[in-house]
Amino acid sequence: MSEAQKYVWKGAIPLQIHLHESEVTTLPPPSPALVLAPRIGYLPLLVSLLKPHFSTALPPGVDTIWFEYNGLPLKWYIPTGVLFDLLCMEPERPWNLTVHFRGYPSNLLLPCEGEDSVKWSFINSLKEAAYVINGNCKNVMNMSQPDQVELWGSVLNGNLESFRRVSSKLKLETFDEQYTENIDSVSTKSEQTTGDAEAAGQVKTSGFSWFHVRTFSHPY
Predict the structure, then answer these.
(1) Does 134 lie in the same domain as 78?
(2) Do 127 and 41 have their domain in common?
(3) Mind listing the pLDDT tens digit for each residue in 138-185?
(4) Which site in 30, 162, 207, 210 is 20 to 30 Å from 216, CA atoms measured?
């Protein structure tokens, strides 16, 4: 199992989340929420942590959570780690975000109906990645319901072992293998020294997986 993949799955980003001032109805305003968010997670899935923290300060209305960073609404279907890497040129610790529970910007963001929307966006991205890797997405389309449940649960819980168990059935490692073969070919043709060959071997171990494909299939 790739060490790089393990680091990604175990990675988390410290967030300091502020309720937007237009939605604050109490004095003093609520303190920001401090959350350690998984890199492979999605911001809307933090609602169960944030709603109790801010609920007493919210105005009447229907909750529809969305986030912004420096005034930019964040696309909820992009993993938190990818958003952070794309938007923080000089990484903040913690990353300061603003959360809204009202005024969803439907002209800027796709509708999000909670966890189900995030789940099906994830599955659709998986289909896209499968097509890029294998030329078709039949394996994903034919995935059993139990496997779908386990795969999504592995993302929610950060369970890499479970994720790899299901994804291996989908034969989504082809891209990784092709990448390794290309590295081998380049190494042979260039007649590198022993030291260079060892370095190339280290690069191979962090080869691409379907997860890398899908997280960048929706550029910001």
Answers:
(1) no
(2) no
(3) 999 999 999 999 999 999 999 999 999 998 888 776 444 444 444 454
(4) 162
Q: Kindly state whether residues 8 and 75 are assigned to the same domain.
A: yes
Peptide bond just before 32 cis, omega within 30 deg? no
- ∠ Cα 15 16 21 (to 5°): 135
DSSP string, 158-217: T-HHHHHHHHHHTT--HHHHHHHHHHHHHHHHHT--HHHHHHHHHHHTT---HHHHHHTS
- Eight-class DSSP state of 26: S
Residues facing residue 96 across a β-bridge? 16
pLDDT, tens digit, 9 for 90 and up, residues 91-145: 889 999 999 999 999 999 999 999 999 999 999 999 998 999 889 999 999 999 9
Please give the tally of structural domains in the chain. 2
- Give me the mean pLDDT over the 24-41 stretch: 96
3-state secondary structure (DSSP) of residue 109? coil
Rounded Cα distance between 169 and 130, Å, is 12
